[in-house]
Amino acid sequence: MAEKSSAKLESYGGQALIEGILMRGKKYLTAAFRMPDGSIEVVEEKLTGIYTKRIKDIPFLRGLIVLWDSLVLGMKYLTISSNKQIQEEEEKIEGPALYLTLAFSLLIGLVIFFLLPTLLMQLLYKTTHLSSIAINLIEGVVRMAIMILYLTLIQRMEDIKRVFSYHGAEHKTIHAYENGDALDVKSIQKYSTAHPRCGTSFLVTVMIISILVFSVVSTPNVGLRLLSRIVLIPIVAMISYEVIRLLGKYEKNPIVRIIAKPNLWLQSLTTNQPTDEMVEVAVQAFNRLLALEKME
Q: Helix, strand or coil for residue 22?
């Protein structure tokens, strides 16, 4: 086994794509795709904008970068990966159509996971005498239930099953790197598909933290409640990211392991065991990322 890596591992992350994997470091992003002809194509991008600002090192504010990754960068590369699997040029989503698709996807997610639970709680305000605290708690539980139901349903789709398998390949590769193991298929496949700094863990933490943050606005006025849910999302993301970093830093602590169990459990819905071919894609993406990061 190689010497355990001393890199700042929290600077590395990834995401499963359609027949591919995205890996992001501190200064670069790479994505590897298994093409229809069986070959692997790797693309790279130097991170600019928000990734080069001082905000990336400021506690809490750096959580906004993770929010950007989840809502914009990740969806952009999901669309790109989809285009890679399409042979006909006229069927690809590019240019203005790409940005409209991203905007529509963000809107749908906002409605389903944030606005819908708030609207449902309006019924409780009108039909019960529950306190605002109780209603906020129920809203959080409903939001979590919607997310679990959504993940349970989509994981039954064959295409999504493959995406979740690539998700498992990404986690296994990161595990191998963190443990200083060789980045080859045989070494990587022995690791778990669950990882404490997974984006799924971030989502669970967001749902829990949102209960506390959203309770700041406790009013039966549905307009104010809906507006507060949108405005406070960045605050929720910032706090959630710091919690995830803290859990990752002390992941071997017995108490932290207990706290992190719900996060790891939910990953069973978003990760599957990958094939060797999927791991090869993850290795290509991660090796290229490491090479680019070391060049700086």
A: strand
